[in-house]
């Protein structure tokens, strides 16, 4: 193979890799902005409502918002929790619901939305369904 052909192909590969990297950063930035808008306006208020409704039913949970995520944990067993967070996944970011039962060593994850358009279109109904699904072990007690 000619040196010129090899160099041309190497340059093309470098250009393509840089373009894909730039696109990925842009997608992650867009998803982060969407998350930053949805978190305080939709997710946090809904999570508070759920915790308050469960408190009225004698299910004691605590809600916190560490590092741009929502964490709902059992007051009696803080290793048992449900978390909503934005996480990078491949070329995009996803909103994930993670339900963990620490003593049992069980963790279940579910993707709720992918990318900025999916995050922006998350509804309260979808979020409530996901939270209730994640909290199901506490609801049965």
Q: What is the number of independent domains?
A: 1
Q: How many separate helices? A: 3
Task: Report the sheet-strand fraction.
Answer: 25-35%
Termini Cα gap: 70 Å
Radius of gyration (CA) equals: 20 Å
Overall SS class: alpha+beta
Q: What do the pLDDT scores average to?
A: 90
Please provide the count of β strands.
Answer: 5
Biggest sheet: strands side by side, in what order? 1-2-3-4-5
* Helix and strand run: HEEEEEHH
Shape: elongated
Helix content: 40-55%
Quick recap:
The protein is an alpha+beta fold and 141 residues long. Helix content is 54%, strand content 27%.
Keywords summarizing the entry:
141 residues, 5 strands, 27% strand
Task: Describe the protein in words.
The chain is an alpha+beta fold and 141 residues long. It has one domain. 54% of the residues lie in helices and 27% in strands. Strands 1-2-3-4-5 form a five-stranded antiparallel sheet. Strand 1 and strand 2 form a beta hairpin. Helix 1 crosses helix 3.
Topology at a glance:
Layout: H1 3-56, E1 61-64, E2 70-74, E3 80-89, E4 92-101, E5 106-114, H2 115-120, H3 124-139
Antiparallel strand pairs: 1-2, 2-3, 3-4, 4-5
Helix pairs in contact: 1-3
């Amino acid at each position: 193979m000619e040196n010129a052909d090899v160099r041309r192909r190497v340059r093309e590969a470098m250009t393509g890799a840089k373009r894909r990297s730039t696109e990925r950063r842009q997608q992650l930035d867009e998803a982060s902005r969407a998350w930053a808008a949805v978190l305080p306006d939709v997710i946090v208020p809904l999570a508070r409502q759920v915790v308050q409704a469960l408190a009225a039913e004698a299910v004691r949970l605590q809600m916190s918002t560490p590092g741009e995520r929502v964490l709902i944990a059992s007051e009696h067993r803080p290793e048992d929790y449900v978390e909503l967070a934005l996480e990078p996944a491949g070329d995009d970011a996803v909103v994930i619901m993670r339900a963990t039962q620490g003593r049992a060593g069980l963790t279940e994850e579910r993707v709720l939305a992918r990318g900025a358009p999916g995050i922006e279109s998350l509804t309260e109904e979808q979020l409530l369904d996901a939270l209730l699904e994640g909290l199901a072990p506490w609801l049965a007690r």
